[in-house]
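pasting for the record
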Amino acid sequence: MTTNGGFEPVFCTVVPPHVLDKLASNDDPALSGPAQRTLLRDGELRNRRRVGTEYGLWAGPTAIAKAPADQPLRSIYDCGHGTDLPGSKVRSEGQDPGQDATVNRAYSGLGATFDLYLKAYARHSIDGDGLPLDASVHYDEGYNNAFWNGEQMVFGDGDGQIFVDFTNSVDVIGHELTHGVTQYTANLTYYGQPGALNESMSDVFGSLIKQYTLGQTASEADWLIGAGILAPGVTGSALRSMKAPGTAYDDDVLGKDPQPATMDDYVRTGRDNGGVHINSGIPNHAFYLVATALGGNAWDKAGQIWYDVLTGGKLTQKALFTDFAKLTVKAARARFGDGGDELQAVQKAWEQVGVRIL
């Protein structure tokens, strides 16, 4: 395992606290109730992870059986709408699909994530060493989130009115598992700009996993995160848009997507760990600009540059946007040379979003 400064697993959710806060204050208890319970549950889990790590109650992953180098080792568990993890095992690696579509989607999403990292970047699972991939579905009652808890994936079914089954979006699965990749590599601090980079890495590779699975080029992709988890009545297309941050939703209940696309609109806040789910729109947009400028399959060039930085050992835990941007320039030059379109695309993208690299 390679980390900068020690092992620091964090509790990472796909739905930002500011979205749940908005729902929790709604006058309709059918909307506010599930959101309030989700916030309470998330707070409890987040604090348990923090205390467990700080006081040595959870020191890191234990020795476990590893998967063959070129195959995933997946286990899907059913919580039965309870909160005891992992729940009852309902599908193991190699077993045929069952009747529960949620279980089948979770299994497929874990496999899609494994495939992208292996085939595009020669990475063997989340830790690079064949880590088994575990996921629990049907977590809690009306739970409006999905999360990586440092050890496994967990999916709620949503409240049915604002959010639906969180396994519906393969990019959500890829997003959360990529928090594990970051945990085992750069170990980016989950606060402020390093935390926004942490979130952005998950959005970037979550989107690439979806594109890889669908066989889409950069120009064909929708660049949306969570397009399948909003209920039909919500005015919006997804949780976030990498193509146009700030436009993913504009709903009477959820409010308006607050993500900025450039540093001109950078949000300074103490909430959401310093706005990690909000300001991630800036590096997200930079990646979109690089990928679409280069064209073709986004995982081949833009994704390779970002992966080189994430796993290269030079990205520090407290890296700022400028630090990350400079490393992408170096990575583009090292992999593709000085005279290529790749270096120019990277430099131009950071200039467009207002991140200084000189």
